[in-house]
Predict the 3D structure of the following.
Amino acid sequence: MKIYISKNEKQTLSFAKNFAKKLKGGDIILLIGNLGSGKTIFVKGIAKALNIKKSISSPTFNIIKIYNIPHNLDKKNKIKYLCHIDAYRLKNQKDLKILGIDEILSSQKTVTLIEWANKVKNILPKNNISIQFKTTNNKNERIIIIHNY
Ligand SMILES: Nc1ncnc2c1ncn2[C@@H]1O[C@H](COP(=O)(O)OP(=O)(O)O)[C@@H](O)[C@H]1O
Ligand SMILES: [Mg+2]
């Protein structure tokens, strides 16, 4: 377990950029925390580090979004796709199966980041990295806890 204190959005973005260096294909990162705790900001930082130019927004309504990672980075870390899932509005976790989640999660070319992963943990493979985001009494402060890494 590792604990990181973020003082503002920018620090969460750089924390994510740093975290991105350790990612490899097939990784599944569970993002846990209330609304507004910084999960999507973290995904933005990861996407930027992976050279994704498209802007990231929470896939709250479409549940799953997949981004191509530019070729130049591909050689270095073999990651071709970033999959961003937001399970917040998912009614039934089995619906993720229908959306083809098993194929995505088992791909060694894909890194998957899942917001509200606690809602779908029963259908996920075990032994993933999970990152917990907590708000504090300070408006722009977040406690970020990495488990299993
Ligand atoms: N230290 C911080 N880290 C991340 N976001 C922060 C921080 N301080 C303030 N914020 C703000 O909190 C909000 C986090 O939103 P978002 O990442 O969409 O949350 P979530 O996806 O967890 O619902 C943003 O408006 C962001 O500007
Ligand atoms: Mg979000």
About this structure: The longest strand covers residues 129-135. Residues 39-40, 58, 86, 115 surround magnesium ion (ligand 2) (CB under 6 Å). The chain has one domain: 2-125+134-144. The chain has a mean pLDDT of 92.
